[in-house]
Amino acid sequence: xxxxxxxxxxxxxxxxxxxxxxxxxxxxxxxxxxxxxxxxxxxxxxxxxxxxxxxxxxxxxxxxxxxxxxxxxxxxxxxxxxxxxxxxxxxxxxxxxxxxxxxxxxxxxxxxxxxxxxxxxxxxxxxxxxxxxxxxxxxxxxxxxxxxxxxxxxxxxxxxxxxxxxxxxxxxxxxxxxxxxxxxxxxxxxxxxxxxxxxxxxxxxxxxxxxxxxxxxxxxxxxxxxxxxxxxxxxxxxxxxxxxxxxxxxxxxxxxxxxxxxxxxxxxxxxxxxxxxxxxxxxxxxxxxxxxxxxxxxxxxxxxxxxxxxxxxxxxxxxxxxxxxxxxxxxxxxxxxxxxxxxxxxxxxxxxxxxxxxxxxxxxxxxxxxxxxxxxxxxxxxxxxxxxxxxxxxxxxxxxxxxxxxxxxxxxxxxxxxxxxxxxxxxxxxxxxxxxxxxxxxxxxxxxxxxxxxxxxxxxxxxxxxxxxxxxxxxxxxxxxxxxxxxxxxxxxxxxxxxxxxxxxxxxxxxxxxxxxxxxxxxxxxxxxxxxxxxxxxxxxx
Amino acid sequence: xxxxxxxxxxxxxxxxxxxxxxxxxxxxxxxxxxxxxxxxxxxxxxxxxxxxxxxxxxxxxxxxxxxxxxxxxxxxxxxxxxxxxxxxxxxxxxxxxxxxxxxxxxxxxxxxxxxxxxxxxxxxxxxxxxxxxxxxxxxxxxxxxxxxxxxxxxxxxxxxxxxxxxxxxxxxxxxxxxxxxxxxxxxxxxxxxxxxxxxxxxxxxxxxxxxxxxxxxxxxxxxxxxxxxxxxxxxxxxxxxxxxxxxxxxxxxxxxxxxxxxxxxxxxxxxxxxxxxxxxxxxxxxxxxxxxxxxxxxxxxxxxxxxxxxxxxxx
Lengths: 542, 315
Known about the structure:
The complex is a heterodimer of chains A (about 550) and B (about 325). Chain A has helices at about 15-25, 30-40, 45-60, 90-100, 150-155, 195-200, 260-270, 285-290, 320-325, 330-335, 370-380, 395-410, 425, 445-450, 465-475, 480-500, 525-530, 535; strands at about 70-75, 105, 115, 120-125, 130-135, 175-180, 185-190, 225-230, 235-240, 250-255, 275, 295-300, 305-310, 340-345, 385-390, 410-415, 435-440, 500-505, 510-515, 515-520, 540. Chain A is an alpha+beta fold. In chain A, strands 8-9-10-1-11-19-12 form a 7-stranded mixed β-sheet, sandwiched between helices. A 4-stranded antiparallel β-sheet of chain A has the order 4-5-7-6, with helices on one face. In chain A, strands 14-18-13-17 form a 4-stranded antiparallel β-sheet. The longest helix of chain A has 18 residues, at about 480-500. The two termini of chain A are about 30 Å apart. The model of chain A is unreliable at about 1-10 (pLDDT under 50). Chain B is globular, with a radius of gyration of 24 Å. Helix content of chain B is about 80%, strand content about 0%. Chain B has helices spanning about 1-30, 35-40, 45-55, 60-75, 85-120, 125-140, 145-160, 175-210, 210-220, 225-250, 255-260, 265-275, 280-305, 310.
């Protein structure tokens, strides 16, 4: 955060974006102490931060109003839009899910969790059994009561041969879900896992009504009811008047997509939409110079990765992979390609956004052409081919930069550009060198377990390390903080040094919004504060 | 004449069938299937298998085609393999939107182009002709995304007179809908009119070189009368064909305008269908587009025959 110079600063001395962040935090009930923490982390003094917060609190007090429509445009939609939580894979699905359903638990901005449909949740001493006490008096949109049966049905959809869930691997360690009574369910684990509630807070585990099979008009318990749903066109959500907690702020939400990024930005600038997902980093100056709109950028653990498959040449040669790691110009990628909206990567999927589990002791691998040359020579490889699709903004540019650096050490790196559609099925994990992107996951353990465990189905580079697998399982049972950190550090060191994955940069979630809408969070697991905005966003221009 | 129309209709149905086979094969040989694309990065072999079983994608391709063909004959377009919604529900609203846009553009641009084309042909080399030639040539050379984006920047972002997008929200009032459609309409009118004006002018000037026109000129008939009475009827054939092709384009080819204005029309739907390998959806769109072409071309041919006595009364 940047603080302008001058005596006793007020909220107006902050940059546009920071003002929004402070006001929005205060409006959602984030404590003054936390907001001051943000400001001081950005370099403000205690007195300065205090005075800013005081002026912002006044500004916010007048704001949180109910009513109005909020229009949100995502970057992608189509006939594949779905309200089936188990099949959710896109921002538009996640956002609609957040408006229509509730989960058992819910994320806070710092990725810790708080109760939602589960009033209380607790585990036994060794994290092998989790008990969820459900809230009573909650009703679905059709008036029927929410009970343990709905939870059992919703969870059951992530198991078994017939399950099409995109998140089944996340909960495969729950051996059995048990219905204790009408308002209590238990998850019996096959091994200890202290992170289960965080996993259940993600989009795929939203609670649907027992027996739902038709997802054109499913029943949820969420803050908004579905008034109109046309996949690939739009959805309209209206306030659920019988919501079980203080209802949403807006009267209605209109959710659709404008696939063209220039058109999406224009629609925000002209006031036709209030929130947009996926701002092109190149459009930052345009947004920042325009009145009434601002960027919403949240640092996250999401990353762009270059994959050298370790089961085939050239990735099976460790020296080759190391050479590819040393030619990365990490700072330049963040500065020039991501336009500052990202953080330097260290070939480690975990970064500071994961909090204490991040191994900050690991030194960042610097751009070093001498070392790269040495390793490349040792590998004896002089030519390689990489498949590139623009899986995340900037991916192609990252690879083009890599090609230039490769030339300097005498490697001919051929780039084969392939289309985005069909990429994950036909190219990823099927060609010797390709690109990948991962969104941030709720915990470091989940992230590494999905993409780096020896038996993980999505282990991008097929890097199988036995020690890694052991540590992943063992660390879930450890409660001692120092020991836990040590184990997490060992895992991150293993990945950074040995895996076939090159992670030059982590990208921020970069979106934009109108000044007339506040209440957007900073949760780093997805766009616009981890898709948590539908219930809490409000208009300030009513 | 009647025989010819019936023949054309039969050929039209054969064309539709051939196109359905080609589109089916074409979409199937693209890499990946709908299960791999919907589940994307999060797919596992088991979830892929479960998804394919649930949506009937585990059947051999020819069976999937026959199922679709059978459905077509009974009027059932099937359900989207990607999202599970029925194809008719996906298409119905968009079909209306596409027809509305194409219809308004046609009503405005066709008479306008023919009149302007005639004007240019009537007074070749004058300032009217020069302005029209210069204007249409410039507009033909400018890609439509440029015209569209440029208008958005001026009228939506800078002046804020018109909305930047035309989402056809059912809550919008009549005038709001007209306002939001203004820019897509203008873009398309510019694109199709420029071409039709050029072709009308060229078609008539072409006829003007024929001996019977020379005869008329020598006889002392006025140029206006020559064009309206003698040349125009002989030029109708090529002109209606250009009009038909442009109208077909308005139904099937306006994907860029639909994308830039987030207009929910059919062209974008077909692209979405191809991107997700959603065969029934792609097929349904392909049938609509192909059918449009067939009908419009038949109509153009009939118009050409009716306007031309030599074709009307063959020896």
